[in-house]
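Re-run with default settings, no changes from the original entry. Doing this only to confirm the output is reproducible before filing.
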Amino acid sequence: MRKVIMIVAGLGVAASLSACAKNGMDRMRPDEFAVVRAQPLVIPPDYALVPPQPGAARPQDGTAQNQALEAMFGGTAIRSASENSTLDAAGRTGADQGARSTAGSPTTNVVDKGQTTRDIVAAPEGDGKDARASTPQ
């Protein structure tokens, strides 16, 4: 009886697999390259390009720093009147020190956050398992 069940199951699987190829279930996909027609190769027109002269400096040569500055800030392009007025209002001419120089200066205005903030900043590193609460005196 067991052999008969196995044979019938095998025939059923074979029949169901063979049915997949019929009635439009054949897994054939369209070829995406056959859908669009390939354009013919065309030689581009001459844009009056001049070949480079031997020994002449290459226009892309320069230091990496200069290339980065030109990419970020646009090089030596003339600024518009509105851009100039914005830069003047931001203090372009009066800015002689950077933020790092003025941060530690004694003349810099500082807000005192109190003893609690100083304690938090000065606390030792760790997971806090040895921490304990204290009452202010």
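Helices lie at 2-18, 32-35, 64-73, 81-89, 99-103, 115-122. The chain has a mean pLDDT of 76.
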